[in-house]
Amino acid sequence: MALTLEQLNAADLATAASLLDGLYEHSPWIAEAALAQRPFRSLAQIKYAMAQVLDKAPVQAKLDLIRAHPELAGKAMETNTLTAESTNEQNKAGLTRCTPEELEHIRKLNAEYGKRFGFPFILAVRGPRGAGLAKAEIIETFERRLHNHPDFELGEALRNIHRIAEIRLNDKFGYTPELGNDVWDWQEKLAQHSDPGYAEKGQLTVTYLTDAHRACAQRISHWMRDCGFDEVEIDAVGNVVGRYKAATDDARTLLTGSHYDTVRNGGKYDGRLGIFVPMACVRELHRQGKRLPFHIEVVGFSEEEGQRYKATFLGSGALIGDFRQEWLEQKDADGITLREAMQHAGLCIDDIPKLQRDPARYLGFIEVHIEQGPVLNELDIPLGIVTSINGSARYICEMIGMASHAGTTPMDRRRDAACGVAELALYIEKRAARDGTSVATMGQLNVPSGSVNVVPGRCQFSLDLRAPTNEQRDAMVADILAEIEAIAQRRGLRYSTELAMKAAAAPSAPEWQQRWEAAVDALGVPLYRMPSGAGHDAMKLHEIMPQAMLFVRGLNAGISHNPLESSTADDMQLSVDAFSHVLNQLAQEQQ
């Protein structure tokens, strides 16, 4: 019989500890210490409590825990001395059915890994959905993580141990994150569509109005109809728009959604998570025959990434009246104009102005998004409350000195443009770190016509500067521009800086941020407030209506814009639950 929270909370300490036995391999002390935080309101609260116990433990205790785990497909499996939990997990992943060649390769990896790190390789082999990873994926992950820094790999091993414990806890309680699984499955299925040149390599790339992009739009629209949306359409810029009507026609509307295009060779969850979470909520409302006192409008924005054309946020921009006619003449790499691409897709360009929303008819905009960073992953917190979308400024710059012979020009007489830029690169790193929440990146560096035996006379570089408020961003920009001037003066260099883009910060509307906070707290998950360093569709809607975002933890150190981008069905379930809570809270407020 499945365990219940009531049973666990009511039991004496010894009984409760026995009920949680086996979550952490041969390490009952973790669950025992976490039980001091009873009563628990949710499984998520138990999981976080155990993660905190381990986080505060001495390093040696962490190493002992890792070393208590068996090697994958190792001696313990061969001699049938695995715990029942480990046997089940390795069996589900197919590790008990390896070919002799696979076993030999895994043994070599185990030996190499143990020699490098001093503990066994740990991987939650049941994977992000809990159904089991493929053997090829396990081996690929094993090979990749061999190259991690030892400190990082220690943390990654512990995070995988927490994921193993999470799945085992679910099993004890007979819990399945059903809606999280559905959201996860939708994203996997949508990832079957990819642009030519990438699809053949198994890579995900969906750029604006390609065949793959249009196939995604059709598939999302079909799923919206299946979920019970009253109206579904693909609008004049390719947005997929689903509307679930309120109990009365004259009600206002809650707007939500995110984008379904991707970067080249990107991940499956960036943007798309924010479409499918509200879709799952609408489907549940439809199944219950429930209508809210406001309309729900879910938009799969057609373009946010700016991959095929220079213009970005074409989808959400159209909703605020920001679609410029000159963009229609932009050309992609094949010389196809945006106008031609839209006409080929059957979109009516003349209807674009009609897409502009009247903010008076909307309550606001909320967006769920994968974090795209390492913070939540490192803190073992599944959800984050976004306080602001960072303001940003981008510059295209050049430092100019004098090209000269590398062998005959003394060090004190050089006008080395590259060294000047290198000095600046170290400065921006320190300057951004001084704020605590600012970030600065020199993502492009180029020495034109550079040669191994020539002192660089020119060095081209970019600057990407971001901060949670416009004032903080502008102060950092001013300091960095002043430092460029100072470096040039000291080194006898000239320079040029061109502002390529400037975007205002988009602080979350307090009342909407508070609704997210109430929803997360109701789940028993700790509140963690954080700025968003990346731009999102919410920053466009911010220009005409209040907005707030919820972040969902990513796996693999939170990496994004990368095939390794991932999240668990459990965390997706929590985001669905949080979204549903916001809907219910808003419904109560509207009555």
From TrEMBL:
InterPro entries: Amidase_Cbmase (IPR010158), Bact_exopeptidase_dim_dom (IPR036264), OHCU_decarboxylase (IPR018020), OHCU_decarboxylase-1 (IPR017580), OHCU_decarboxylase_sf (IPR036778), Peptidase_M20 (IPR002933), Peptidase_M20_dimer (IPR011650). The keyword Manganese applies. Residues 9-170 form the Oxo-4-hydroxy-4-carboxy-5-ureidoimidazoline decarboxylase domain. Keywords: Hydrolase, Manganese, Metal-binding, Purine metabolism. GO terms for molecular function: hydrolase activity, acting on carbon-nitrogen (but not peptide) bonds, in linear amidines; metal ion binding; N-carbamoyl-L-amino-acid hydrolase activity. It comes from the Bacteria. Residues 390-488 form the Peptidase M20 dimerisation domain. One of its GO terms (biological process) is urate catabolic process. It holds the Pfam family OHCU_decarbox. The keyword Disulfide bond does not apply. CDD domains: M20_bAS. Its EC number is 3.5.1.87. Its cofactor is Mn(2+). Belongs to the peptidase M20 family. Homodimer. This is Amidase, hydantoinase/carbamoylase family.
